[in-house]
């Protein structure tokens, strides 16, 4: 494949023509390449009786799989659930191909695209170069896969929705797309991308094409709907299916308060900037005098660990412990009283759903789809992101009122048991798949 790509005649810089077209418009280039391809659409027959056919399903992701992470957990849950229903499920990710071959392809793509962009635009954006080289190399790895073997293809990100869209032109297999983040809009919101830049133009074109390529968009929560509609999606093309989990600790009982001296606060999350741990520590510092007999457990690991440990030391928060990555989350939550997730940017965190099943009093933020499953003052307490003062006030209230903790926890658990189960999610997605057959 590397030799094939290095042949100038086989390299197609306009494999994704809509991306080149978007950049042409930005740079004012009036020398168009081939027009954007058109796909023939069909819609599920909702009036027809859905047969219980055993399906061959392909799930695709642009990220490594399997590794630790919310997206990967979602894929595993969906795969396992569908297999339990008798379906055949394959997952394809870039790390499923030989690493040295993938690197050679990306390096060769990068060299070719650098020359193409410099010749065409007089410059080469580093982030765009990195992305389009990965898109092209993933396409090269996938192009020999016979999509005719599958009944349904389910892309778990915008990038594979673009790659599969190209490959699917001749197969016309039902293609579904589930976004797990807010795509370009989120990067603009947090100033990680300059508004009006070529990066916004390029990545917005990817967002729009992923929607065009999909027969149906399955979203994790309703907060995606206005974003997708703004990108061109039709209302009847969007279906909400909340993430469901199989929580192993659902039947665990909490430790008796007679044998548990401390009140335990638990936060389960990757240690990343957007998860907001720093704001939690600032909040704890504001109520330090109320933390007697309180234990704070930080579960998870990540690039922010050293920085956060230093912050805890500087704030002299002696009751905070970093437990690292753990495999016994149900057990840890069975020992906990309060679950805090101070995230500043999220969709529908699985750790939050685990806390609901584990009968936790939940304190979290007004982010993404969180308010769709946690109702403020009913099944948890919600504060605005990046607001240590509000966090401190609500945390102090939960520490003070055990009866409130019990009420919030019970309501959260009831909602999870009714709406957020592993089987409920799988059966709803299976029904969507079958509607296309």
Care to describe what's here?
With 437 residues, the protein is of the alpha/beta class. The chain has helices at residues 2-6, 17-27, 70-84, 99-121, 126-142, 158-167, 183-189, 198-213, 224-230, 277-286, 305-314, 329-334, 350-357, 370-373, 388-400, 402-419, 422-434; strands at residues 56-60, 88-92, 152-155, 175-177, 216-219, 238-240, 263-268, 294-299, 320-324, 338-341, 361-365, 381-383. The strands form two sheets. It has a six-stranded parallel β-sheet, with helices on both faces. The protein has a six-stranded parallel β-sheet with strand order 9-8-7-10-11-12, sandwiched between helices. The longest helix is centred in the N-terminal third of the chain and has 23 residues, at 99-121.
Compile the SSE list and pairings:
Layout: H1 2-6, H2 17-27, E1 56-60, H3 70-84, E2 88-92, H4 99-121, H5 126-142, E3 152-155, H6 158-167, E4 175-177, H7 183-189, H8 198-213, E5 216-219, H9 224-230, E6 238-240, E7 263-268, H10 277-286, E8 294-299, H11 305-314, E9 320-324, H12 329-334, E10 338-341, H13 350-357, E11 361-365, H14 370-373, E12 381-383, H15 388-400, H16 402-419, H17 422-434
Parallel strand pairs: 1-2, 1-3, 3-4, 4-5, 5-6, 7-8, 7-10, 8-9, 10-11, 11-12
């Amino acid at each position: 494949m590397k030799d094939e790509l290095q042949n100038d005649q086989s390299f197609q810089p306009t494999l994704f023509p809509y991306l080149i077209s978007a950049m042409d418009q930005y740079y004012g280039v009036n020398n168009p390449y081939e027009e954007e391809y058109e796909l023939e659409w069909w819609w599920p027959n909702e009036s027809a009786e859905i047969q219980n056919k055993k399906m061959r399903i392909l799930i695709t992701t642009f990220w490594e799989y399997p590794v630790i992470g919310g997206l990967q957990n979602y894929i595993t849950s969906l795969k396992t659930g569908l297999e339990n229903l008798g379906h055949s499920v394959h997952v394809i990710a870039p790390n499923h191909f030989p690493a040295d071959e993938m690197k050679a392809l990306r390096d060769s793509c990068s060299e070719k695209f650098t020359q193409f962009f410099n010749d065409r635009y007089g410059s080469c954006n580093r982030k765009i170069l990195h992305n389009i080289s990965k898109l092209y190399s993933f396409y090269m790895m996938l192009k020999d896969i016979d999509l005719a073997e599958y009944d349904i293809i389910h892309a778990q990100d915008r990038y594979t929705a673009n790659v599969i869209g190209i490959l699917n032109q001749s197969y016309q297999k039902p293609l579904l797309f589930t976004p797990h983040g807010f795509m370009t809009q989120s990067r603009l919101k947090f100033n990680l991308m300059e508004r009006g830049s070529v990066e916004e133009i390029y990545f917005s074109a990817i967002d729009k094409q992923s929607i065009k390529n999909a027969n149906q968009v399955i979203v994790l929560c309703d907060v995606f709907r206005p974003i997708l509609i703004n990108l061109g999606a039709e209302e009847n093309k969007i279906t909400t299916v909340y993430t469901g989990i199989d929580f192993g600790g659902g039947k665990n009982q909490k430790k008796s308060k007679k044998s548990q001296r401390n009140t335990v606060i638990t936060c389960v999350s990757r240690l990343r900037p957007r998860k907001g741990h720093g704001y939690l520590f600032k909040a704890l510092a504001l109520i330090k005098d109320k933390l007697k007999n309180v234990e704070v457990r930080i579960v998870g690991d990540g690039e922010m660990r050293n920085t956060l440990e230093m912050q805890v030391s500087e704030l002299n928060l002696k009751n905070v412990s970093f437990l690292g990555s753990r495999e016994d989350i149900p057990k840890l939550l069975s020992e906990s009283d309060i679950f805090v997730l101070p995230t500043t940017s999220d969709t529908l965190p699985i750790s939050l759903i685990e806390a609901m099943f584990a009968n936790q009093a939940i304190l979290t933020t007004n982010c993404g789809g969180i308010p769709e499953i946690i109702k403020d003052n009913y099944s948890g307490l919600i504060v605005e992101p990046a607001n240590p003062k509000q966090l401190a006030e609500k945390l102090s209230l939960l520490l003070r009122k055990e009866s409130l903790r019990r009420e919030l926890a019970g309501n959260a658990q009831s909602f999870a048991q009714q709406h957020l189960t592993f089987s409920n999610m799988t059966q709803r997605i299976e029904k969507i798949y079958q509607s296309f057959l």
